[in-house]
Amino acid sequence: MRSVVFDLDGTLADTSADLLAAANACFTDMGLAAPLSAADAITAFAGGRAMLRLGSDRLALGWDEAAITTRYERLLEVYAEVIVNETRLYPGAVAAVERLRAEGIAAAVCTNKPVDLADVLLRRLGVRDLFAVVVGAGSLAVRKPDPAPLHHTLALMGGDRRRTVLIGDTITDRETGRNAGIPVTLVTFGPEGADVARHAPEALLDHYDDLDRIVAPFIGRP
């Protein structure tokens, strides 16, 4: 089966504002200042622990990994409450996935976001039914860039590795594809913008209107 696998945060949706709000709450509910701003979107897409480490450094808290893990649980609680306050799908994403499905191409999500939160987010955005499979942190014992989550995604959806492309936005996605032997397209509208070209993906995607043309060489014809 021809398939296109999407990362979620920074690829299908801009989730940075809600992620940063959840991270800041971990500091403000302790009576501290909110150390993170919209300029930290790249860190937001690196995960909750990355945001907490950055915030701790800025506030000179000196948190060790045990403290980070404790506050990370609080971050997840807050994030579940604010998950779609500011999050928006990138322009053209829904129409692009619908076009794939109309052509008999399966779509799935493979993310490092906790799988239950990924599922909730997609449902709250009204697009869960567009994706055959959602794999995330907790689906397996490892995360991207380990290739296992991507291989697991393909196994669940019945995808053919030789007719699959991964759409992502960071070096993590680039390395996941390389490790899995699957071509990668990186979006230029994510947190790194056009700078993602330095990761040398097989292709770049400037807008979802162009998705069909970009993925065609990698997934082939029916």
UniProtKB/TrEMBL annotation:
Gene3D superfamilies: HAD superfamily/HAD-like, Putative phosphatase, domain 2. Its EC number is 3.1.3.18. Keywords: Hydrolase. It catalyses: 2-phosphoglycolate + H2O = glycolate + phosphate. The keyword Hydrolase applies. PANTHER family: PHOSPHOGLYCOLATE PHOSPHATASE. Belongs to the HAD-like hydrolase superfamily. CbbY/CbbZ/Gph/YieH family. This is phosphoglycolate phosphatase.
